[in-house]
Amino acid sequence: ERNRIALELHDEPAQALLVICQRLDALAEREREHRDDELAGELRGVRESVVRTLTGLRRLSQGLRPRILDDHGLVAALEWLGDQIHDECGMKIQVEAEDLLKELPLNTQLLLFRVAQEAMRNVARHAGASRAVVSVRTDGRRLTMTITDDGRGFLVPPTLSDLAGSGRLGLAGMAERVRLLGGVLNIRSVLGKGSMVEVELPCTAVGDASSPASAAQSLAADAPALSAM
Ligand SMILES: Nc1ncnc2c1ncn2[C@@H]1O[C@H](COP(=O)(O)OP(=O)(O)OP(=O)(O)O)[C@@H](O)[C@H]1O
Ligand SMILES: [Mg+2]
């Protein structure tokens, strides 16, 4: 039930709000010819509040824990996500994950689930890929999840929050969630070849979420090459 609500909360009203945004943009474009500054300011204000509502809505739906996560754990939940995408668009998603993921704290599982969900949705909507792989592994010091596709790729903007202004909240939201848990998000994409979203969490944050900031610092100092590309 919670999962259905989360999906509906996000998909239907979010879609409606995006359409409102587009209509506001079209209105603003038409009004530009009349040079009515007051009206233009008004339209901008309405548009900003729509984007704010969209952000709040996504935050709300992302905060809900899907039932399958509680009942069957992260690996089953990731496989279920993959099946859903397969049903929707026919693309095959392979899930590679280790068993120890059952022991992850619930907030870490939810983070990984939500990031994978958004990344898979992006692959389905934007990549035109023939396949995608979700992989979760750990070397004892850090936990890494990657979502890789062989699609068309895209130019990754230097600042993800720039996307948010145009109502594209997926990557920016991912970055925010990962940062809150003291992790690092890397997005790499090569035009014509594919894309990869990678989340790295220090195992200190995985076992003990009490000091995310220092965990992030040690991770960042550890892996300078990861933020390149
Ligand atoms: N796997 C991918 N392959 C190709 N392009 C992608 C991929 N992931 C993201 N993109 C590009 O990056 C943009 C930003 O993605 P983001 O998830 O932030 O927003 P969105 O998917 O457009 O909208 P929203 O997630 O808010 O519904 C997308 O519009 C798309 O152009
Ligand atoms: Mg998206």
How would you characterize this protein structure?
Mean pLDDT is 82; it is low at 208-229. The protein is of the alpha+beta class and 229 residues long. The protein has helices at residues 2-32, 37-63, 67-89, 106-127, 161-164, 170-180, 203-207, 212-222, and strands at residues 92-97, 131-138, 142-149, 184-190, 194-202. The chain folds into 2 domains: 2-63; 91-227, Histidine kinase-like ATPase, C-terminal domain (Heat Shock Protein 90), CATH 3.30.565. It has a 5-stranded mixed β-sheet with strand order 1-2-3-5-4. β4 and β5 (194-202) form a beta hairpin. It has 8 helices and 5 strands, in the order αααβαββααββαα. The protein is 59% helix and 17% strand. α1 runs antiparallel to α2, α3 runs parallel beside α4 and α4 packs antiparallel against α6 (170-180). The structure holds adenosine-5'-triphosphate and magnesium ion. Magnesium ion binds at residues 118, 121-122, 170.
